[in-house]
Design goal:
By secondary structure, this protein is of the alpha/beta class. The chain has 13 helices and 13 strands. The protein binds zinc ion (ZN). The site of zinc ion has 5 residues, from loops.
């Protein structure tokens, strides 16, 4: 759904963001098409595109091909060089970082194995990576900030911070605030599934969707519900952490203290255990090698079980939330996710069955292994590029309240006269 502009005088910032948003979503769009989509006057749209061009957020390109009479048609697009953002993905034992431009492309990436139990050492590694990427960004524009994505659950609950799929010892993630002082950059952090979900909203397969469910298939299993392009995080920030939903009665013991949790069957950690390749540093490479060889009976048994759990999970998510689609991303290799999704067919009946075409019930992220880096990098620029409706609607309500008050005072004055 494309948002429509408003003609209230005080809504110029709102309209600017609506126009910027429509340019991002369409990729390349003419002024006339913007006018049609956002319902603002041609003059207002012209003023806004002139402003956005002047500050370098968008660029105008002359369209090749059929030249009509008069001016050649011009299309606007986001200026990829309008600045950069640094995304850092923190997983147990490993830090990945990337320099991302304003259209979501990773220009440079880095990865370092580190003992993440050691917070000091990990922070130093992160600061070092930020320094290197900053150098790479160099003179070519503004750095919007640093985003850090970490595995959840983040806020302390009795299933946080214990086990191989979370950052043991990181019970206080506000330690990341120190990066702000060390780098003098804005630093944002979020649960990895929420960051990656916002990444998909801004630059990925969900860019035309206002809502969907995002399943984060990494070392562990997480999830985020996106509503009106904002991540819904529940009472304490841990909503839809689906990894610890009981899936198998009396099943495998889980680090959270329960048994049969979904994540014990559907995660890279679970696969690494099944293949006996849990140890870093070459865990991920050995998983990919096993997938490519595809001759290990342990892999076959694991995939059959995992596909059963995925089929059940899709049914539960759909029946509870009725999302337009479920996007699967995360650090799991694409080869693995494609295999599990294929093996999970046909899906169970659910409230989406018969409504959504079978092929649209699950979409695969086209970022896959990079989804956390892009998601993290999106944190500093999300508000710039995507109007968040609940915030904007509050602003508009405030506008309306002010207008209402002015109206009352006007009426009172008229009464006195
Ligand atoms: Zn559990």
């Amino acid at each position: 759904m494309v948002s429509r502009g408003t003609t209230q005088q005080s809504s110029a910032p709102f309209n600017r963001r609506i126009v910027l948003d429509v340019i991002r979503r369409q990729g390349r769009i003419s002024r006339r098409e913007i006018v049609e989509l956002v319902s603002l006057s041609p003059q207002t749209v012209a003023n806004i595109t002139n402003d956005l061009e002047a500050i370098g957020l968008i660029v105008a390109r002359r369209l090749k091909g059929a030249k009509l009479r008069g001016q050649p048609p011009i299309a606007f697009e986001l200026n990829p060089n309008a600045g950069h953002s640094i995304g850092i993905s923190l997983e147990p034992g490993h830090v990945k970082a990337g320099l991302v431009n304003l259209v979501g492309e990773i220009l440079e990436r880095r990865g370092v194995d580190v003992d993440t139990h050691d917070q000091r050492r990990t922070l130093a590694v992160m600061a070092g990576l930020i320094g290197e990427l900053r150098k790479r960004a160099g003179k070519s524009g503004r750095l919007w900030g640093v985003g850090v994505a970490l595995p959840g659950p983040l806020i302390k609950t009795d299933i946080s911070f214990v086990g191989p799929t979370v950052l043991e010892g990181w019970s206080d993630v506000s330690v990341l605030d120190e990066l702000r002082d060390a780098t003098r950059l804005q630093v944002f952090y979020s649960v990895d599934s929420a960051a990656a979900a916002l990444g998909e909203t801004l630059f990925g397969v969900a860019r035309s969707l206002d809502g969907f469910f995002y399943m984060h298939f990494g070392l562990g299993l997480g999830g985020t519900l996106v509503i009106n392009r904002a991540a819904y995080r529940g009472a304490n920030g841990n909503a839809t952490e689906i990894g610890h939903i009981p899936a198998v009665p009396g099943g495998k013991a889980c680090y959270c203290g329960n048994t049969g949790c979904l994540e014990r069957y559907l995660s890279l950690q679970s696969l690494a255990e099944a293949l006996a390749v849990s140890e870093l540093p070459d865990r991920d490479a050995r998983i990919v090698a096993a997938l490519e060889r595809n001759d290990d009976p342990r892999l076959e048994v694991w995939c059959a079980q995992a596909a059963d759990r995925l089929r059940d999970a899709v049914c539960v998510i759909e029946n509870i939330l009725d999302p337009v689609t479920i996007v699967i991303g995360g650090s799991a290799p694409r080869l693995l996710v494609e295999r599990l999704v294929a093996q999970a067919q046909p899906l169970h009946h659910s409230v989406r069955g018969g409504v959504a075409a079978p092929a649209t019930r699950i979409l695969l992220s086209d970022r896959q292994e990079d989804s956390s880096i892009v998601g993290a990098a999106v944190l500093p620029i999300y508000d710039l590029l995507s109007p968040r409706f609940e915030v904007l609607q509050q602003e508009r309500r405030a506008d309306a309240d002010v207008a209402g008050l002015l109206g009352q005072r006007g009426a009172a004055r008229a009464g006195r006269l």
